[in-house]
Specification:
The protein has 16 helices and 53 strands. The chain is mainly beta.
Length: 1010
């Protein structure tokens, strides 16, 4: 039998009759691959909106629990076939119901007249059938077959992965026909069941595991950033924090299954999302990679997020090694909400104000436009330890290692000189999502825009810092009290998409679309100086010390980066009786630019070609050779400017067939050609076997790849990086990052980067224990060859050719991007859900866990290059290996409970972050921690709700840091009194903190729906 899923979203009031449903559903014999989103709009039509990757057997809409369970309303539904009755129910309630069309049409529904709650109405409507009405933990209504006869009705025999449909195919077209009278057929892979987790967070009948994260589930986390929301409810997702790591402070790395940020593909409405322009070159999770800015899309604009936890490069191209994250935008044509939220940390800092406004508009009778505006203002946090080292000259070390203050200013100097925590941040976001029926198809598109200003801090430059805060002719530092440089970043992100999709009479469809995206970041360093410029003012301009202090510039524009992506997609599908084919092409252009900074930000004014030009002019008082460039974050010179582009062309072919009863096999083949490294061909095979009516086995085998990012190919600069010195403290080092086609790299014989190659294997089981209990268990294995990694900071003395190259560059050390590692990752995903009644309401429990381990199995340097003679252990340090293997938690477990009763909703979540190890001069393993989140929501009226909650309710912090610290020590005065005693300013690890180190966060909010 053919099973046809429906997803109908009623968004308009007063829809009584003459309903026109716009749909396109394709099925295989006995199996479905569905891509069908139906919406009942004010023009009495249903609209098929963009989808993700894998489809459901259901028909789905979000409902407030209070409305579903308690609110009485009048019904007038005649006795008729159940599928028609359910559509009429959806019209009269303006809600969503998830059901199988093919299943429902087998039954006759009762007539329904009078006042009922929605759930009671459904139960009365379906009485004496074998169908049950249930409400899931997100308040979504669904129709499920009763436990009896489930096998006979073949319920839940859902196709899984149609292995090669491009993102453009995820937004499929439809033709207007009467849904109550006629079912069409469609077969398109989607990431997930649209808008619901009825059968559990993993789509149970697919060959690969998928998480469906609804807007309500995201909101219930109490977080205001999309990255943190995902981390709170998707254990395989990590969103690590670091501090004093330049641009990484403003744009955190997001990872899936413990791999790199650039090994997860992100889609918006099924369209490839551009990456962020930043590349993480400092020592943090994801070092040497460039990911996607997960916080550029306001959470209030998101209808749902779909997370495919499996390799999918054969379907969607580069980057989809760990999986795919598809963000689906809201598409309602009426209604909306206004919301405000305020919170702060238990330490009294990090005050955050978040304001959301969302509104849907009807475009006549044939279209919709949904828009979202968001503003978020987050104050900085600071968890720095005390500055325990001497800030002024003249200290002497005593026999016990303590320091005796010399300069009297040392006795009263402030000791809270650092700012270590979340950056100060303000963000404005705008999102527009639209569609309009035109001719025989639909014109669709979206626009996303955000601008974010961040301010983070660098290392404090104290008085006794000859290079960064040079001594002037009066014997005192340029800035006598010292200064804390600030790194100011402005991140602008814009994307837009438009396309046209149509379906033909021969059960084929065509989709043509264009997508553009751009991310830019501009760095300005403030509260800083260029130390060498102070010497220039003294020796070249003849200024006095007082005049130098009064006139030296305190900020400079460091540089900017821009990355853009353009794609054109053409996708065609054709369905036959026993199988389905999909094919298409993609043309893509990547562009990357580095914009030079101001001269003041990068120039070394007292050095020319490595020679100090003021040597011997100080008469023994003050500095002659200070550090060039702005302290804290130096600029980029014109020589480091970049303006590069790359063209990519891709073709794919997809096929799927129901080979025998209860077994579906799908396959994909994809060809990509990149300007630079050439072409690559990848495949995917996937299958699902319904062993019994309650047990299914699923598995997939695929090859994949990740092309070198534009940043890895072309990023280059010289920056100050703080590394662990011989005494265990951090010391500043000028490190050059050199692109592989640079003169220096070519002189060393370093070859061009090629693609990473992966092999993915997965095997899972789905067990429907009962109607209310669902369990999934999946094993995965990911092998990556020729993984692109950034080398260690290679200094002089390793090889003669490297020494000569570094001398000519002016850098003390150099680092390069290399195809230099093979890794193996394996792990287990577990998800269990239980929906029940209790405490006078409903209770929904979810237990989700991820256990993952990555091993570096091989390290190598380019054969025939100048690095071949350098020991591999020097090219790739133990720290570089540790970042890949150990800096993310080895396990993540989440247990959540959602309780609903009348107008009250309570969400309680326990999040376990497993052990992780950081190598930074020494090795430290940080213990597992459990964080408790709670949110209580109360509907004051049907439209107005208020909420209060806490993230990390019990104020849990990671273990305190014992390695890689800085500014530690004990200082005493002449009488032996302790002025300060500190283990260092990094009380908590600044390198990797999976849940941060800010402590408890408390918040209140209000929301009005209209």
């Amino acid at each position: 039998m053919k099973i046809t899923p429906l997803l109908i979203n009623v968004t308009h009031k007063g829809v009584k009759s003459n309903l026109k449903i716009k749909k396109m559903i394709k099925t295989y014999r006995g199996f479905l691959f569905a891509n069908c989103l139906y919406k009942l709009r004010s023009n009495h039509t249903c609209y098929l909106s963009p989808l993700g990757l894998v489809a459901p057997l259901f028909f789905s809409i979000s409902v407030h629990a209070s409305q579903t369970e308690g609110q009485m309303m009048q019904f007038d539904i005649k006795a008729q076939r159940a599928d028609k009755a359910l559509i009429e129910f959806a019209k009269q309630t303006e809600q969503t119901v998830v059901f199988s069309y093919e299943l429902a049409k087998q039954y006759e529904a009762n007539s329904l007249y009078g006042f009922y709650s929605q759930l009671d109405a459904l139960n009365a409507l379906l009485a004496e059938t074998e169908l049950d009405a249930v409400v899931d933990q997100n308040g979504l209504l669904s129709i499920k077959l009763k436990q009896i006869n489930r096998k006979d009705n073949n319920m839940m025999k859902l196709s899984g992965v149609s292995a090669a449909v491009l993102p453009a195919l995820l937004a499929v077209n439809s033709q207007g026909i009467n849904a109550a009278e006629q079912s069409a057929e469609q077969n398109i892979e989607k990431i997930a069941i649209v808008g619901s987790r009825v059968a559990g967070r993993s789509v149970e009948d697919l060959p690969v595991p998928v998480d469906i994260l609804s807007a309500e589930a995201l909101e219930n986390t109490g977080q205001t950033e999309v990255g943190r929301m995902l981390q709170a409810i998707a254990p395989s997702f990590n969103f690590s924090s670091s501090s004093i790591s330049d641009g990484t402070d403003a744009l955190r790395p997001a990872t899936l299954r413990g791999l790199g940020p650039d090994q997860t593909l992100v889609l918006i409405n099924g369209k490839r999302r551009h990456q962020a322009s930043i590349i993480h070159i400092n020592t943090s999770v994801g070092r040497g990679t460039a990911g996607t800015d997960m916080n550029a899309i306001p959470a209030s604009a998101i209808k749902r997020i779909e997370v495919l936890r499996d390799g999918a490069a054969a379907q969607y191209g580069s980057d989809a090694i760990a999986g795919v994250i598809n963000i689906v935008l809201k598409d309602g044509s009426e209604g909306g909400k206004a919301a405000v939220n305020y919170g702060e940390y238990s330490e009294g800092d990090g005050e955050t104000v978040n304001i959301d406004f969302n509104k849907g508009f009807a475009l006549g009778d044939n279209g919709y436009l949904n828009t979202t505006i968001n503003y978020r203002d987050r104050a900085p946090t600071n968890r720095a330890g005390l500055h325990g080292s001497c800030q002024f000259y003249g200290c002497t070390e005593l026999s016990d290692g303590t320091l005796l203050a010399g300069d009297p200013r040392e006795l009263t100097a402030p000791r809270d000189t650092f700012r270590i925590g979340d950056a100060d941040s303000q963000q404005f976001g705008l999102t527009v999502n639209t569609g309009y029926e035109l001719g025989a198809g639909e014109l669709y598109g979206f626009i996303t825009y955000s601008t974010r200003d961040n301010e983070s801090a660098a290392f404090f430059r104290h008085n006794a810092n000859a290079g960064g805060n040079p001594v002037l002719q009066d014997g005192d530092a340029t800035i006598p009290a010292g200064f804390l440089p600030k790194i100011n970043t402005t991140i602008d992100d814009i994307s837009y998409n438009f396309g046209y999709k149509t379906e033909f009479d021969n059960d084929s469809s065509l989709d043509l679309s264009y997508t553009y995206g751009e991310n830019s970041i501009d760095y300005t360093t403030s509260d800083t100086i260029n130390g060498s410029y102070a010497n220039f003012l003294r020796y070249d301009q003849g200024l006095s010390a007082a005049d130098i202090r009064a006139t030296i510039p305190r900020q400079g524009y460091a540089y900017g980066m821009e990355l853009s992506l353009q794609t054109i997609n053409l996708d065609f599908t054709q369905n036959f009786d026993d199988y389905s084919l999909a094919m298409g092409a993609e043309i893509r252009t990547d562009e990357y630019r580095i914009l030079e900074g101001s001269e003041y930000a990068y120039r070394d004014y007292d050095t020319n070609n490595g020679v100090n030009i003021y040597d011997g002019l100080s008469s023994g008082i003050g500095s002659e050779n200070a550090s060039g460039g702005t302290q804290g974050f130096g600029g980029s010179s014109p020589a480091s400017s970049v303006d590069e582009s790359r063209d990519v062309i891709s073709f794919y072919l997809d096929a799927e067939a129901y080979v025998i009863e209860d077994v579906i096999i799908s396959g994909a083949l994809r060809y990509d050609n990149y300007k630079g490294f050439g072409d690559t061909v990848n495949f995917k095979l996937a299958g699902n076997w319904s062993v019994t009516e309650d047990i299914s086995l699923r598995g997939a085998l695929s090859s994949g790849f990740r092309a070198p990012s534009m940043q890895q190919l072309y990023f280059n600069n010289i920056s100050t990086q703080f590394v662990v010195g011989p005494n265990g403290n951090l010391v500043a080092e000028e490190v050059g990052t050199f692109r592989n086609d640079s003169t220096l790299a070519q002189s060393l014989g370093i070859p061009k980067l090629t693609e990473e190659k992966s092999q993915n294997r997965s095997l899972g089981i789905v067990y429907n224990v009962s109607d209310n209990i669902n369990v999934t268990l999946d094993y995965y294995s990911i092998d990556i060859d020729d993984r692109i990694v950034i080398s260690n900071r290679l200094g002089k003395g390793l090889s003669s050719s490297l020494d000569a190259a570094l001398l000519s560059s002016g850098a003390g050390a150099g680092q390069f991007f290399l195809n230099g590692a093979d890794t193996e990752t394996q792990g287990i995903d577990f998800v269990a859900t239980w929906n029940t009644e209790g405490l006078g309401g409903t209770l929904d429990f979810t237990l989700a866990a991820n256990f993952t381990e990555t091993d570096v199995v091989s390290l190598f340097t380019p054969a025939g290059s100048g690095l071949e003679t350098v020991p591999v252990d020097d090219v790739f340090s133990d720290q570089e290996i540790s970042i890949i293997e150990e800096w993310q938690p080895e396990d993540r477990i989440n247990l959540s409970a959602l309780y609903r009763r009348d107008d009250w909703t309570v969400n309680l979540s326990l999040n376990r972050f497993g052990e992780y190890t950081v190598e930074d001069g020494g090795r430290q393993t940080y213990g597992a921690e459990i964080l408790t989140d709670i949110k209580v929501n109360y509907f004051v009226t049907d439209d107005l709700s208020v909420n209060i909650g806490a993230n990390n309710l019990f104020d849990v912090y990671p273990d305190e840091n014992t390695i890689g610290n800085s500014r530690s020590g004990t200082i005493v005065d002449a009488q032996g009194n302790t002025i300060v005693s500190s283990d260092g300013v990094f009380k908590y690890s600044r390198r990797s903190a999976p849940f941060g180190f800010n402590g408890a966060y408390y918040y209140v909010g209000a929301e009005y729906r209209f």
